[in-house]
Amino acid sequence: MGIVEEAHNIKVLGSGEQTIVLAHGFGTDQSVWKHLVPHLVNDYRVVLFDNMGAGTTNPDYFDFERYSTLDGYAYDLLAILEELQVQSCIFVGHSLSAIVGALASVTRPDLFSKLVMIAASPRYLNDVDYYGGFEQEDLDQLFEAIKSNYKAWCSGFAPLAVGGDMESVAVQEFSRTLFNMRPDIAYSLAQTIFQCDLRPILGLVTVPCHILQSMKDLAVPVVVAEYLHQHLGGESIVEVMSSDGHLPQLSSPDIVIPVVLRHIRYNIAV
């Protein structure tokens, strides 16, 4: 096993001719795809991995400077594809990873036949003529809460993000993976994600994009999905799902998994 495979806990399942790469967002790990994977392994070669900084990765490998921008994660993704000798893939990215996939596709569009983007946002901060959902004051309070008492922040943030109560399995699952992150890494990564502005690169994304968004999402307003659709450089399609929360593949699998499968299997009509 190479250093890239070991560092990212890479798993390759199934043996289909077409490769699907599943990439998770902030506060989770590859287990967030547990409801989707069984539907894919009979027809596809499925690649799962953990982003650096996830609680399942070695914190010693986390380079604070490298991951101070999302470029570090895009380079990691390209390294993973190279390590596995992936010539072309369908990339399914959630939240952070949806934008990372878009970023990587600008450098190597040949490696991606399509991007399926779940709960993606190029910028969380409101701006002139742009609604990302957060004011700077909101983000400052978020960062302070993470820094001052990480465990308490996790307990409060998990049900808000998932869109359920503390008793739900999905909330407990997200609480677990969120709490598994080392607090200083979570703090640094939250700053990188919530202060990012990837709007300038959207026009450079030429790979077809399928934008999937929950009807109600604490982190990403529905209008952001439409913004992506209007500003991406290639073909794109938006579907707003009747799900609630930022991790719909975990909290509403009965609604979301059929939608994701449909977008994996069908190409955008030109």
Automatic annotation (TrEMBL):
In terms of superkingdom, the source organism counts as: Eukaryota
Single GO MF descriptor: hydrolase activity
In this protein, which residues make up the domain named AB hydrolase-1? 20-257
Q: Which Gene3D superfamilies match?
A: alpha/beta hydrolase
Recite the UniProt keywords alphabetically. Answer: Hydrolase
A Pfam family assignment: Abhydrolase_6
Cell membrane: present as a keyword of the record? Answer: no
Among SUPFAM superfamilies, the record links this protein to: alpha/beta-Hydrolases
Keyword Hydrolase tagged = yes
Family under the similarity heading:
Belongs to the AB hydrolase superfamily.
Q: Return the protein name.
A: AB hydrolase-1 domain-containing protein
